């Protein structure tokens, strides 16, 4: 079965809010084997909504609407669909009762525009709103299933999970369950990764592979549709092994969990700590590491040392390194990392020094940097070059530092 999601609301088109509802609904539908090939957004205009519906009816079995069920004049989803289908709108007794109780508790009387939130389609399955007032509806018309949900995400999510999904699972699903596996890669570009698995992409049927590049990473979503979780997992693992034969060395995780969380979990599991010495990144690494609960167990502290005086005073970076090699140098990066490790008595320490831009620094162009890593086995420094804005350079530096630490922790585990 194929579904199409139509979000209704001019505020979406104006960019005032994000269409997070469509993302949520798509994820939930995939779990019960319902495909979603299109999302549409229509403003608060009956004619344009009708055009969206006509288009969707030609390519989907299930149309799911979010928004346009409220009490104001521009909430026209019910009225527009009633006009298109010829199905009358009636008041649902349970929804009406909830409305009246809501206003009675506040010592007020529901007005006529409030009461329209209790309207549903004659003969429809009513979806009660456990988090708000506007009820939802499910009905069939000329072979198409129509599902109407409220726009506020809190109300929509509760209604869809409590009533919408159970209805579809019982009446629509073909008993084929969709299941996905996320593989996350770093230090390999999307084009290079795709080139290495090109034959797998060409041959894919079920399971399928979907690459996605973002924030210096590449994600592969492996998706399978099968009769049971056990069969699906077996098929996904077989495909994963084929992918790993080509690019497994670049994979740092197998879930929605991002690199910083993966590193934090590894540190916590191994009862290992890391500290930081930051010049280039200005505390961004420390901010990242302290965003997790229980951060003090893995991150005892960090130093922001932009000036040479600060590097000497806080980390004991020797003056001859600053004078002869410079603040942006392999020697300085190593010394900074070693100083932080000693200062905070941590197992590892990481340092960042370089040119964030927009101007060059000590002969280095914006985006050129050294990242130091000190640990039980010694200290090393990596020269890195990246383009982009000042913020982009700093953000990249932190992620690259996390990946260097991840590799060290993974090698320690393998050893």
What does the model show?
It is a single chain. This protein has helices at 10-13, 20-31, 46-57, 77-85, 93-105, 112-115, 153-171, 190-196, 198-203, 229-247, 259-270, 284-289, 308-315, 319-325, 330-344, 390-414, and strands at 2-8, 35-42, 62-66, 89-91, 119-121, 125-127, 136-141, 144-149, 177-186, 208-214, 217-226, 251-253, 274-278, 302-304, 348-354, 368-375, 378-385. The model has no long low-confidence stretch (mean pLDDT 94). It is elongated, with a radius of gyration of 28 Å. A hairpin with an 8-residue loop joins strand 6 (125-127) and strand 7 (136-141). Helices cover 43% and strands 25% of the residues. The protein has 415 residues and is an alpha/beta fold. The longest helix has 25 residues, at 390-414. It starts with a strand and ends with a helix. The strands form 4 sheets. A 6-stranded mixed sheet has the order 2-1-3-8-7-6, sandwiched between helices. It has 3 domains: 2-171, Molybdenum Cofactor Biosythetic Enzyme, Chain A, CATH 3.40.980; 177-253, Alpha-Beta Plaits (2-Layer Sandwich); 259-414, Alpha-Beta Complex (Maf protein), CATH 3.90.950.20.
